[in-house]
Amino acid sequence: MFRLLVLLAGLAATPAMAAKHAGPDVGECPEEGLRRMRCRGTTPGFSTVDSKGEFRGLDADTCRAVSAAIFGDATHARFVPTNGSQRLPVLQAGQVDLVSQTLTQTQTREAANGLLFTGVNFYDGQGFLVRKSSGVKRAKDLEGASICVAAGSTSELNLADWAHVNNMKINPVVFERTDEGREAYNKGRCDCYSTDSSQLASIAT
Fold first, then answer.
1. How far apart are CA 93 and CA 76, in angstroms?
2. Cα 144 from chain centroid?
3. Are 77 and 37 in contact (CB under 8 A)?
4. How many CB atoms lie within 10 A of CB 133?
5. pLDDT surpassing 90 at residue 156
6. 31 Cβ partners below 8 Å, 6+ apart?
7. N or C: which end of the chain has fewer CB within 10 A?
């Protein structure tokens, strides 16, 4: 039903963990410290909630690994689901202590938000997902297409830059939540979905 198209050349995403800058050293963390960790909960393979209400996937396991390293107990982590536009504000406000998700590491995000990306745990790139029936063979065939994309994401900025550089007219259809964008695409509300290729692969399978 779906076909995964070429990556956006030169626009690689680097999902990573982010933490509040200038926080206490691990050895100084109190019993209740560094335990509220933000995971999206709507991204297959990275963070989804199973039938028992447990977070599963790479991002969730990373949070558990951090918890195990600090407290000796992987279950010590407390997950706080938020949407993409809330992920950095809740970290800045101290509502969570660590964000582990598909969050692209950029100098602007670190400098402007006073945050520290502690490391990259998955390298990715942005791509396009279209239906086989669309007849689209390459990204430049998307002239005039409506494209679902997450609000406030690097994907949204990359998409706008890509269209400008290639002098193409596109119609972004913006959603706050990844699952809302997926549902809209599956229901035909947009011609294409653009985000990290790993997420597109999970949608297409």
1. 21
2. 26
3. yes
4. 9
5. yes
6. none
7. N
Based on the number of CB atoms within 10 Å of its own CB, is 119 exposed (0-12), middle (13-18) or buried (19 or more)?
Answer: exposed
| Cα–Cα dist 50/80, whole Å | 15
Count Cβ atoms below 10 Å from residue 83 Cβ, excluding itself: 18
pTM for the full model? 0.68
* Residue 135, number of CB atoms within 10 A of its CB: 8
Nearest CA-CA partner of 58 in 88, 23, 17: 17
Beta bridge mates, 20 = 115
Comparing CA positions, the residue from 183, 200, 18, 3 lying closest to residue 109 is 18
Checking if the pLDDT of 143 tops 90, the result is: yes
Amino acid occupying residue 83: N
Radius of gyration for the alpha carbons in the chain, expressed in angstroms and rounded:
18
Structure tokens at 1: 């039903």
Q: Which positions ≥6 away from 96 have C-beta within 8 Å?
A: 36, 37, 38, 80, 82, 90
Q: Nearest to residue 98, comparing CAs of 73, 116, 72? A: 116
CA atoms within 13 A on the CB side of 170: 29
